[in-house]
Amino acid sequence: MLKKLTLLHSNDLHGDFMVEEVNEQLVGGVSMLSGYVDQVRREEPNVLYAIAGDMFRGSLIDSEYQGISTIEIMNLLGPDVVTIGNHEVDYGLSHLLFIEKCASFPIINANMYLTLNHRRLFDSHKIFEVDGMKILFIGILTEDVLAQTRQEKIIGSLVDVEDAAQEVTKICNAYQTEDIDFTVLLTHIGIESDKKLAARLSPETGVDIIIGGHSHTLLNEPVVVNNIPIVQAASGTDQIGRFDIWVDTDTNSIHSYEWQLISITPENCPKNEALENLILHYHKETELKYSRILTHFADVYTHPERNQETMLGKIFADAFGNTLGLDLMLVGSGSIREEKLGPIVAYKDLLRIFPFSDPIHRVHLTGAQLKHALKFICRDEAFTGDHTEYYQFSEGFYAEYSVEDHELLSLSIDGEEIPDDEILNVGMQDYHFMNMRYFLDLDPAEVEANGRSKVIASKAMDVVEEYFMDHPYIVGPEEDRMVIYRWGHA
Fold it and tell me: Using one digit for the tens of pLDDT, what is the confidence trace for 53-70?
């Protein structure tokens, strides 16, 4: 028998609550997104709405209330099921477990567990009964993206895609007796890892589709691997993904489907007034508190891509490098959460674009270790769409790297070449310090042998705020710092 199932999906909302004006057109916002979801629920008989991680981080409203406001807003939005993203643990694991209790929707994750007894922290899956169909959702997040929990020694997680495939197979095997008609993997591991995961799944698991997140991928159509359609809905609330699926309940498989990315605009998305009022309440509270002006940029400066040097990235790196007396500051490109800033910079703008209050560590790296880390940062995956860590570098740094030859061609600081045995004072954010092995391919013990690391600023945000206030007019640095030669070199 054929039955229709409509699946709506979002990912990486990152506190994108407010409507924006783009080319004289109102776009996005949770109130219009909710209006569209409600409309589809009225028009179609069998509708489920899923969010594939990262509801948190990226907005002033979320940061001010540490995710509690986000959960209240999400409760009104009313997803049927949500999985964990890496930014869900930014406020600490214990806070996330508290927030879960505030949610009126199920949060699933198959692979975060207590290392003492391997007991899962969340339900691994959720089964919905819709029009006689049983729909299984499984939540997956690998350790490759779950860097924050490496600071929580009692918490473990799946290491890689291979482990994730085994966990999915185990859950599917355990619930075969439930006569599942349709199986959805709700992941937050990035599109490239989704492809690898799909390729490793046996047809016997019965996985029908993968709804993913983390890499913010904008698709025109599903990516199909191993007969499994894989989708994402980019990021934020400017769009929502929609599957219209005909399920063959006799064979427990897809008979046919249509997928589309729906733009969230007034033409097809009526506004949810109750949700709009709640968001405006939070917005007014934060606007009054954080509207003071910090500095004035000479222009609007941008951060369009995380795997390249950007004007905004250099400004933030200089704020730390110049203030803290470092030879070099490494600022994680992913820390800069919006694509542009200026020319007027208010405190609320800074909180939106750089919503992190973690400490800054000073470590001692040899020239050889820095060169090794730079080659690792610039490995092929950084330029092929994988969601790798990339860095912005402070004033005085200059390096050249050949992608074709996989070679660091030059490295200098303040015009001086760096010998392998020279010791450098290098700053990095706590998140990156705690994940030095994963992000820089450096052994923390070997780094510590060069000299004890030290917290030199307890709150990163304070450093940038003071720097902006002390520099009332900032001109973006024009000089190249990390020159990447894609084919050969000069």
Answer: 888 765 666 666 677 778
Q: Please tell me the class of the 2-283 domain.
A: alpha beta
User: In the chain, which segments carry CATH 3.60.21.10?
Assistant: 2-283
| Architecture of the domain made up of 292-485 | Alpha-Beta Complex (3.90)
Amino acid at 221: E
pLDDT in tens, 306-351: 889 999 999 999 999 999 999 999 999 988 988 999 999 999 889 8
Sign of the dihedral defined by the CA atoms of residues 77, 83, 85, 89, in that order:
positive
Q: 271: Cβ–Cβ under 8 A, 6 or more apart, which residues?
A: 31, 32, 35
> What mean pLDDT is predicted for residues 119-137?
89
What span, in angstroms and rounded, lies between the C-alpha atoms of 382 and 388? Answer: 6
- In DSSP terms, 259 is beta-bridged to 243
| CA separation for the pair 475, 41 (Å, rounded) | 50
CA 471 to chain centroid, in Å, comes to 31
Q: Which residue has the higher pLDDT, 144 or 198?
A: 198
pTM: 0.68
For β-strands 125-130 and 182-187, DSSP reports them as unpaired
Give SS3 for 467.
Answer: helix
Q: Which residues contact 386 (CB under 8 A, 6 or more apart)?
A: 190, 192, 215
Strands 81-83 and 360-366, by their bridges, are unpaired
Instruction: Give the tens place of pLDDT for each residue, 315-327.
Output: 999 999 999 999 9
Exposure string over 414-433, b if 16+ CB within 10 A, otherwise e: eeeebeeeeebbbbbbbbbb
What is the gyration radius of the CA atoms in the chain, in angstroms?
Answer: 23
The letter for the amino acid at 262 is I
pLDDT for residue 70: 80
Q: What is the mean pLDDT of residues 111-125?
A: 74
List every span in the chain annotated with CATH 3.90.780.10. Answer: 292-485
